Amino acid sequence: MFVKNLIKSSFQKVGLELRKIPFKTNFLIEKSQHVPSVKSSIVDQIFDFFNEVPPFYSDKTIAQLQIAGAWRRDFQDRRKNQLNFLASGDKDAYKNLLNQMLRNELSMGILEVKYYDEKSLGTKVPIQFLKNLEQFLYLTNHKVDMLDDGPFGGRWGVNIDGVLVNLSDPYKGLNAFNSAKIIDYMCNKNPTYIDFGSGLGSDAVKVEKFTTLPLRSILIDIPLNLTTAFAYVSMNTAKKCVLISSVDQLTKQLESNFTESEFLFVPSIFVSEIGKLGINIDLMYNHGSFSEMDYETVKFYLDNLLNGTVKSLFEINSNAPILNYGGHIEVESLNFPIPSEYKLIKRGPSLNAYFNHRNVESLYIYKNKEI
Questions:
Q1: Residue-by-residue DSSP string for 80-109
Q2: How far apart are CA 112 and CA 82, in angstroms?
Q3: Element containing residue 231 per DSSP (H, E)
């Protein structure tokens, strides 16, 4: 008893609580032996997209949208195979890269908790995963099958009741559950949602599953991430997926009606066009990427999107001046230039705050001055 109390006291001193976790904790990391192959038509669409939209845009792109400096060098270091296969036109090699995206460079800088490592297979999962899983099950009252995006991408993680759960899934599932509840509250017909900085697209897949109405999901990211998300979502869902490569195509898609859920993949270079169209966006979600930008770039995106057409903003970002890659000091979320019409409803530690103390989550709701 003395030892137990000593351990409990030590955990409490660092802000942790010992509780009985309602499931086994000796999960071992494994990988799926089933690795589906991406459809050739999806790879063709990705290469056609890059014929229209270069991986790093162009030198004529306005400063706020350029992928330059340390940020560009970071991608050039992380995504060497992706860039080489695109430059050489090697579709077969690119297809193999996509097939294993959760185990290779395509997921670097995107996943939470842990990246794939062959040496980790057969070892115990990090306590961070267990804590996030406990919170997901407790707070959502859903089972782990809701965390399953699908078989594509070179799945790895832990097998729970026959579901291979990636170590990122519980945390993403928690945020997706909350996003879906905001969407359901904000709209009672044909809701539209923006995932700004959509990464692999796993968050958007989960949000769509948690919502009660057909949902139009607009995933926005830079080209190298966006096209990977397009493959991931296209292969893991039976929903309509459209990779946008021109303003005309974007306008046509956004002005059309929809009766079933769909996913639109939009490069960040077209953000200002979304704002101009004046379509209703029930929720814009951002996790992490605003803080990674400089202040002027954050302001550019918020000025173009938070113009009254976006009804709510749910963002999870750093609230500490942390040094990031390339010497960049993260912009604190308290200093984001949120337009005054957007009222802060809630702010608190992110659901991952046990292990990442710098991130806070904030919910803003648009309130017309006339109301």
A1: HHHHHHHHHT-HHHHHHHHHTGGGSGGGTT
A2: 21
A3: helix 223-236
